[in-house]
Amino acid sequence: METIRLFVERLIVACGISGISVPIVRHIVLALVVVIVAYLSFVIGRQLILFLTKIVMKKGTQWNPLLLLSVSRIIPAIVVRALMPLVFYQYPWVRLSLSRATAVYITVMATLAAVALLNTFEGNEGQNLTATQQYFKSFRGVLKIVIFFLGAIVAIALLIGRSPMTLIAGLGATSAVLMLVFKDTISGLVAGIQLTSNNMVRKGDWITVPNSAVDGVVEEITLTTVKVRNFDHTIVTVTPQTLVSDSFQNWMGMQKSDGRRVKRKVFYDFRHIKLATDDLKKQLVEKGYFTANELQGEQVNMALYRRYVERMLAQDGRVNHHLSCLVRQLEATSTGLPLEFYFFLSDKEWVAYEHQVADLMEKIYALAADFDVLIYQTTPQQ
């Protein structure tokens, strides 16, 4: 740079410029030289980065454009920081101001590049995140906050000419304020770590939160919110703390299992529970519900009804025979004797599941009359 300065001074004198105008013209020309060199370094650096990026992308890796732009902008700033003080060597305050300004610019670009690098890893993830990927996604959110915080501290320290460590040490007095400002972020981080490390919920899960209007598929999990698209296509957001502190239902276990459970309770009138008469037994044999040998001795119509329904469910092709299937009697109540029908359907798809449940339960209701039992029903008040 000293050689260039001497050459420029000779060129200025050769052009007939003399006196006080020489330093002014010299500073202008040298500043233009620095700008041109910085621009050339930007172009060369950008082309070099693009060339390296194309090589990397051939291997299947995608890079964030903001990362490439931020890195390429750091190169000319380094050139300006190294050369511009030599231009204004006679003016210390200008040299100091330019040095601090370019240092702050480099800090901002480095901060944006670091954040863009984290976003690049986020973009490489698929739609169905594993627990580990979701954990690192939450952790990246914290890293972004830390990077912005450190970038701001370093930039302020450079502007006022102080050590960044001195500023960080001085923040101890304002830690309570910072804890208050980032309270939701910190609590969200802790709750998010609990959700992901324990594999409680991930993107794509179907969840239901009883104490809120949440019944749909998880679309996004961040440090402070869990975004869910309900089945009516409304978007509901809840905090991770809500899922951790309160109970919620994750249906992924059902979707990955061999069947979806049906658990229905029906009340029957006590006045129609009685010993089966010969006429009733004969009707049951004629309809093929039982054989004559199966109806020997005293039989209760409710017991026959319960045994037949259980046999019918076990033989139905829509019911998963490898999972529990039973009809059990519950504790008697003032509204009748409850029977619980407990079984699993092989088809877990919502529409098909609901139709199959309705078909089976309607048949169970219709069979009650054949066994001379009556489903309890209160009489509407007039």
What does this protein look like?
The protein is α+β, with helices and mostly antiparallel strands. The protein has three domains: 1-122 and 132-162, no CATH class; 198-254, Roll (SH3 type barrels); 258-371, Alpha-Beta Plaits (2-Layer Sandwich). Helices cover 57% and strands 12% of the residues. It has 13 helices and eight strands. Strand 3 (226-230) and strand 4 form a beta hairpin. Helix 4 (92-123) packs antiparallel against helix 5 (131-160) and helix 5 packs antiparallel against helix 8 (183-197). The chain is rod-shaped.
Strand content: 5-15%
What characteristic shape results from the CA principal axes?
rod-shaped
Tally the structural domains. Answer: 3
Biggest beta sheet attributes = 5 strands, antiparallel
Unreliable stretches (pLDDT < 50, length at least 5) are none
Number of helices: 13
How do the strands line up in the largest sheet?
A: 4-3-2-1-5
Q: Please give the number of β-strands.
A: 8
Structural class: alpha+beta
Distance between the termini: 104 Å
Gyration radius from CA atoms, angstroms: 38 Å
Helix content: 55-70%
Query: How would you spell out the order of helices and strands?
Result: HHHHHHHHEEEEHEHEHHEEH
Could you tell me the mean pLDDT? Answer: 79
Task: State the main characteristics.
382 residues, alpha+beta, SH3 type barrels, Alpha-Beta Plaits, three-stranded antiparallel beta sheet, 13 helices, MscS_channel_2nd, MscS_beta-dom_sf
Give the secondary structure arrangement, pairings included.
Elements: H1 2-14, H2 21-57, H3 65-87, H4 92-123, H5 131-160, H6 164-170, H7 175-181, H8 183-197, E1 206-209, E2 214-221, E3 226-230, E4 235-238, H9 240-245, E5 249-250, H10 252-256, E6 260-268, H11 278-286, H12 301-315, E7 326-329, E8 337-345, H13 350-367
Antiparallel strand pairs: 1-2, 1-5, 2-3, 3-4, 6-8, 7-8
Helix pairs in contact: 1-2, 2-3, 3-4, 4-5, 5-8
